[in-house]
Design brief:
Radius of gyration: 19 Å
Number of strands: 16
CATH class of the largest domain: Alpha Beta
Number of helices: 7
Shape: globular
Structural class: alpha+beta
CATH superfamily of the largest domain: ATP-grasp fold, B domain
Distance between the termini: 22 Å
Helix content: 25-40%
CATH topology of the largest domain: D-amino Acid Aminotransferase, Chain A, domain 1
Length: 291
């Protein structure tokens, strides 16, 4: 399978390149192309994961469809034949990994919901008994289910790490009404998705989502409930008191931690067996979630 690390469409213009997505301005809409790039510790690896972009696109589309009764999203079409005529000649590259989306004003807040205590949340809890400043009961174990899901927003950093902020800081950034809408919608999406996933044997430990506004309406944008933006665990293998095996790029992170690498560019090339195992994990969660 070919790996798409970088898209080139000279007559369309230069895209804005994120860690994974190449975003083209195509007039009335934006074109989001999901590449096979993979990053770890905020550094993009020199080689990608075959099929990753198509799997992420399909998973996002699945979840956007599931949430359409909760909140509008930015999708216009994922079918290349619906794209602007000048994009048709790039159809082979775009097929399955691109979506035409509405232009929205991005809300400058990452909306994170945590249902379980893991990752940076676990580290914070060990330090002072809180997650993002929210106090929690004593004696919780790693990977334990939280008493109730937490809304733990962060800044949206163009480069480097996002920074956790309080709900009060979100109010200062976007106003009380919008902050409450972001929090309540994020909870609604997380709880609906968790119910769907649990029926398929999957725990959604946490997830992050992004929102934008169009004519004052808040909509979902970017990706949704993908393994790049969420921790998915198998219910049958779940056991609190330890870290869990995730359906994501944890394989890549674990491998990199065995190396003498300082987590700054240039990143080391991933060996074939790590690439293959990671691709299998993405494909596995795609099949479980979407059927």
């Amino acid at each position: 399978m070919d790996v798409v690390l970088k898209t080139e469409m000279p007559d369309i213009g230069e895209p804005r390149r994120g860690k994974v997505r190449d975003i083209y301005d195509v007039g009335e809409h934006l074109l989001l192309v999901v590449t096979d790039r993979v990053s770890a510790f905020d550094v993009i690896m020199p080689n990608g994961i075959p099929g990753k972009g198509k799997l992420l696109t399909a998973i996002s589309l699945f979840w956007f469809d599931q949430m359409k009764d909760i909140i509008e999203n930015h999708i216009v079409s994922s079918k290349v034949e619906d794209f602007h005529p000048e994009l048709q000649k790039y159809g082979e590259m775009l097929e399955g990994r691109s979506v035409l989306v509405k232009k929205a004003e991005v809300v400058p807040v990452e909306c994170i919901v945590r249902g379980y205590i893991s990752g940076s949340g676990w580290a914070s809890y060990l330090e002072d008994g809180t997650i993002c400043g929210i106090g929690l009961p004593a004696g919780l174990k790693e990977s334990a289910r939280l008493p109730s899901p937490l809304f733990t927003p962060s800044t949206k950093a163009e480069t480097g790490h996002d920074i956790n902020i309080s709900f009060e800081e979100v109010v200062n950034v976007v106003g009380a009404e919008t902050a409450e809408k972001l929090r309540d919608t994020s909870h609604g999406v997380y709880e609906t998705a968790s119910s769907i996933a649990e029926k398929k044997g999957i725990i959604i430990a946490d997830t992050k989502m992004e929102f934008g506004t169009i004519d004052g309406r808040i909509i979902l944008i970017d990706e949704l409930l993908t393994p790049d933006a969420s921790r998915f665990w198998s219910i049958k293998d779940y056991a609190p008191g330890r870290s869990q095996d995730s359906f994501d790029k944890q394989i890549v992170r674990d491998y990199l931690l065995t190396l003498d690498w300082d987590k700054t560019p240039p990143a080391p090339e991933l060996p074939p067996h790590i690439v293959e195992k990671t691709a299998q994990r993405y494909h596995e969660i795609f099949e479980i979630l979407t059927g």
